[in-house]
């Protein structure tokens, strides 16, 4: 049966709305495994409503995204936008600026894995502008 409402199937709790200083639109990050000195890995889930996205950011040891539902975008600075969807796995290289979020019409749910947290977790940068996002949407 076709899903005409484009509702996402939640695997994990939605959590609290993320800070407007770090996200544009409605994004709900939830930590699932906190960083510690044993595993040195942080794992969480983010639910992005349609049009929501992270700011540009980087991770000292990189980041892995596992898309669990929906459709969205991922972009590494200076490279073309990538469409990401349920079942995709994305590697964000260490210390490379990137952003990710939902498409304009469909939300996105992703697991994020940040390894080697002893090197640091995240460096946040500026917001992805409406112009950057709309240019990216035209590449669908």
UniProtKB/TrEMBL annotation:
It comes from the Bacteria. Signal peptide: none annotated. Residues 46-104 form the Cupin type-2 domain. Pfam families: Cupin_2 (PF07883). This is Cupin domain-containing protein.
């Amino acid at each position: 049966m076709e899903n005409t409402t484009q509702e996402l199937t939640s695997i994990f709790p939605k959590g609290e709305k993320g800070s407007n200083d770090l996200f544009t639109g409605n994004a709900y990050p939830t930590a699932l495994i906190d960083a510690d000195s044993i595993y040195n890995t942080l794992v969480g889930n983010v639910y992005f409503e349609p049009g929501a996205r992270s700011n540009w950011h980087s991770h000292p040891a990189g980041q892995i995204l596992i898309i669990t539902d929906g459709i969205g975008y991922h972009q590494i600075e200076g490279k073309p936008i990538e469409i990401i969807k349920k079942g995709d796995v994305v590697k964000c290289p260490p210390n490379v600026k990137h952003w990710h979020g939902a498409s304009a019409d469909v939300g996105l749910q992703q697991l994020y894995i940040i390894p080697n947290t002893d090197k640091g977790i995240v460096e946040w940068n500026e917001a992805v502008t409406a112009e950057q996002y709309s240019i990216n949407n035209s590449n669908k």
